[in-house]
Amino acid sequence: MDEITALAKRRGFIFPSSEIYGGISGAWDYGPLGVELKRNVREAWWRDIVALRDDVVGVETAILMSPEVWRASGHLEHFFDLMVDCRSCKKRFRADQVTGPRCPACGNPTLTEPRSFNMMFKTYIGAMEDATSVAYLRPETAQGIFTDFKLVYQTARRKPPFGIAQIGKAFRNEITPGNFIFRSREFEQMELEYFVRPQPREEGRRWFDYWVEERYAWFLRLGIQSERLRRRAYSGDELAHYSQATTDIEYDFPFGWAELEGIAHRGTFDLEQHVRGSGKDLSFFDEETKEKYLPAVIEPSLGVDRACLVFLLDAYEREADRTVLHLHPRLAPIKVAVFPLVRNKPEIVELAVTVERGLRPHVRTAFDDSGNVGKRYYRQDEVGTPLCVTVDYDSLTNQDVTVRDRDTKQQVRVSIDRLPSYVRDRLDQA
Ligand code: GAP
Predict the structure, then answer these.
(1) Of residues 17, 66, 26, the one with CA closest to residue 173
(2) Engineering a disulfide at 34: which of 3, 13, 160, 209 sits with its beta carbon 3.0 to 4.6 angstroms away?
(3) Which residues sit with their C-beta closer than 6 Å to ligand 1?
(4) Which residue has the CA at smallest separation from atom 10 of ligand 1?
């Protein structure tokens, strides 16, 4: 984890937020390469969940919502972590992270009894800071989907089974953020609420199983090593009171197996709560069958940052002479780096610039003419660039270039006019 955190900072993936002021716990900034990785992760999710399907539509709902939403959803009453304080060193811990009577930090037996602590960030809307103006930063994106359920199915003309997807920021005042971007206070979620008929019950169960498998397969398709990924079904007493089934997709992090994504069968709980809270009828009316019902919902929910962490950890390899990120090409921040073999031969530099510009409309590129070619390969391997293209003396006469593969280090000559289609084919094959 330390190596990945150091690489992420050194190469411009991820930095602590406001670091020049000593940072702030639980918030992170994405640098030039990190922002590309994050966009690619979102894009890979959106493509497979929304764009390539005909049963899912997307939304982008507001972070600030009526506080009534959080009353109805149960977050005001139940979104608590139990915490304990140490009376000696004043540190605060999540109760489930403390095993004995002693403080994990200072070792004194001076811990308080567990107390509950609401994890929602509270703020005020408008000029008055009083009870009437209280609002919360959303702790999950899902509730915006539930409150808009009716508007979406009517305007998009959908009927169950269908889903509504959203990617956006969420905020939780975690007591112990940590493990780099694994647990933050400001983070991003990619959530799908997939609405199905509540009866027969097997239908919901079938869709739940479908989404567990689909989400598991998604990580494998994007290159995650299968021995580091597992599905863990919750036992009955672990389930939230409204949940009929929950399975976590877990990853073998450096600190142990932990949740990467959760898939929950939430039954009709959320829509029922909002019907009760708002007094509005949110049921679905099927014009064909004349049936009217509140759909049940299956929810795969994944943190963008947590996914980025897993893709980085899983891709990371230290070989004898280099460090490589074996990122799936779809996720790699830069797809192709172009080098002129030497800097002091203007024709070569010019041709390299032309080659790089020619690739830009097709894929994300980089140009590097500093140091020797070995160093340039090293720099690109370390950030996961799948292909490096070198323009050399022969390129001037033959109009071709050397293309080198990140993982195998194999090199082939490719003619410049075929380069865009060659690159596209190579990246698509992965
Ligand atoms: N709507 C359901 C929901 O929010 P969750 O298990 O609390 O469920 C879903 O969160 C996913 O969001 C988690 O599996 C994780 O990937 C991500 N996540 C949750 N809390 C996080 C945090 N503090 N920092 C980073 N990611 C977080």
Answers:
(1) 26
(2) 13
(3) 140, 142, 172, 174, 183-184, 187, 189, 191, 259-262, 299, 301-303, 305-306
(4) 301
The residue ranges of every structural domain in the chain are 2-67+120-314, 80-118, 334-429
Question: Which tokens is 317 given?
Answer: 């390899």
- pLDDT (tens digit per residue) in 210-261: 999 999 999 999 999 999 999 999 998 899 888 999 999 999 999 999 999 9
| Residue-level pLDDT at 150 | 96
Q: Which residue, 366, 344, 371, is CA-closest to 353?
A: 366
pLDDT digits (tens, 9 = 90+) for 121-163: 999 999 888 888 999 999 999 999 999 999 999 999 999 999 9
Closest-lying ligand 1 atom to the alpha carbon of residue 182: 25
Q: Ligand 1: which residue has its CA nearest to atom 6?
A: 262
- Mutation test of ligand 1: which of 175, 189, 212 has the most ligand atoms closer than 8 Å to its C-beta? 189
pLDDT at 375: 94
What pLDDT is attached to residue 128? Answer: 87
pLDDT digits (tens, 9 = 90+) for 351-407: 999 999 999 999 999 999 998 999 999 999 999 999 999 999 999 999 999 999 999
pLDDT of res. 94: 86
Q: What is the rounded distance in angstroms from the CA atom of residue 319 to the CA atom of residue 323?
A: 6
Q: Which ligand 1 atom sits closest to the C-alpha of 172?
A: 23
Q: How confident is the model over 108-119, as a mean pLDDT?
A: 90
Q: What CATH number was assigned to the domain covering residues 2-67+120-314?
A: 3.30.930.10
Report the nearest-CA residue for atom 7 of ligand 1: 140
What is the CA(202)–ligand 1 centre distance, in A? 27
- The matching CATH number, chosen from 1.25.40.10, 1.10.472.90, 3.40.50.300, 3.40.50.800, for 334-429 is 3.40.50.800
Residue nearest to atom 22 of ligand 1 (CA): 183
When pLDDT is cut at 50, 70 and 90, the band that residue 279 belongs to is: very high
